[in-house]
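About this split. The held-out portion is used to measure sequence recovery: a designer receives only the structure tokens and must propose an amino acid at every position. Recovery is the fraction of positions where the proposal matches the reference. Here is one held-out target exactly as it appears in the evaluation file.
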């Protein structure tokens, strides 16, 4: 006799759920993960780059970046803070469910999170991902990660569906806009009106971008944030490029654009980590170190806005997306179509 898992399609897609109509009984916050000490750094980085052919020299270079911060990424702590803020926010909406953190690349891993939920008897879990924009690494890959974790746990693994992405949610926009206004206040008043907001996101291969709505969603979110913050001029830029130099990735790079703006006579930039919900290492290093240094080299004023983190408006947005999916009559909300966010390499998903 076939089991429910054998009868249904990929649980991370959720379209062929055999538990449709059953209530969600837990919430899974899904994130990238990060080391919390120097002993964690190399194993963490090996998880991140596994199968990508990244040279050992590059891994060692990034490890040195972590060393500057004691080997600690603030990401896990910020995700725990988000979860603690979510509990009362959901309670106000009458939602009292356990919330568990599961990461792609470090403890607590998704597999461990699903084992914990299975031990509690969870059958149908709702996932909230801390990545707000559509692309393979920020959307579909997380669904593949969940699927692999379910296979590792086995028949007792809960079914997992997800909320929709938050990049254009009014609460996220309001939270990020407030962070931008706070940063603008640090620009000298006489020059404030001429400051350019550079809204930064993780660069991805151009082929991956063509297979998703990443650029379109970032542009729309940036427009909404800039308008809400009262910014006169804004641009979308990219950071954290990796991979072979002959493979095209999204541009312009934030540091290169800062140099270009200085050549145009711009006096100040406000750099906004739009594509990052938390101030993890790629924000701390690529923006606070490298982009800030580039600005200093060309004599342009540099202010970095904080990420949304556990801002009350962002917490409310996350709560709203969870409530929407739990209470909504349209159960297709948040479900990704079968061909969404492909990697752009021709590689097939593990469930295909």
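Reference sequence for scoring:
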């Amino acid at each position: 006799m076939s089991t429910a898992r054998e009868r249904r399609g990929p649980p991370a897609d959720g379209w062929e759920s055999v538990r449709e109509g059953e209530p969600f009984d837990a919430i899974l916050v899904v994130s990238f993960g990060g080391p919390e000490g120097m002993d964690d750094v190399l194993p963490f980085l090996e998880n991140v780059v596994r199968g990508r052919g990244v040279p050992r020299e590059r891994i060692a270079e990034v490890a040195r970046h972590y060393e500057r911060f004691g080997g600690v990424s603030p990401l896990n702590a910020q995700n725990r803070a988000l979860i603690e803020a979510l509990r009362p926010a959901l309670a106000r909406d009458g939602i009292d469910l356990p919330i568990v953190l599961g990461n792609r690349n470090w403890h607590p891993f998704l597999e461990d999170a699903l084992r914990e939920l299975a031990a509690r008897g969870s059958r149908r879990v709702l996932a909230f991902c801390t990545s707000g924009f559509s692309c393979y690494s920020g959307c579909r890959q997380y669904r593949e990660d969940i699927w692999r974790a379910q296979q590792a746990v086995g028949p007792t693994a809960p079914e997992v569906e997800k909320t929709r992405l938050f990049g254009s949610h009014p609460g996220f926009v309001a939270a990020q806009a407030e962070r931008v206004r706070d940063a603008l206040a640090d620009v000298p008043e006489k020059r404030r009106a001429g400051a350019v907001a550079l809204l930064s996101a993780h660069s991805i291969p151009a082929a991956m971008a063509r297979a998703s709505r990443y650029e379109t969603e970032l542009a729309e979110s940036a427009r909404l944030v800039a308008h809400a913050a009262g910014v006169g001029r804004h641009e979308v830029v990219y950071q954290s490029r990796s991979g072979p130099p002959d493979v095209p990735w999204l541009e312009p790079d934030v540091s290169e654009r800062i140099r270009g703006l200085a050549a145009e006579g711009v006096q100040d930039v406000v750099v906004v980590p739009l594509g990052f919900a938390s101030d993890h290492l790629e924000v701390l290093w690529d923006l606070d170190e490298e982009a800030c240094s580039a600005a200093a080299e060309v004599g342009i004023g540099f202010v970095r806005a904080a990420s949304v983190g556990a801002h009350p408006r962002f917490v409310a947005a996350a709560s709203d997306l969870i409530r929407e999916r739990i209470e909504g009559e349209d159960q297709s909300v948040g479900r990704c179509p079968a061909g969404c966010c492909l990697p752009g390499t021709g590689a097939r998903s593990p469930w295909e």
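Annotator remark: The chain has two domains: 4-165+313-327, 170-304.
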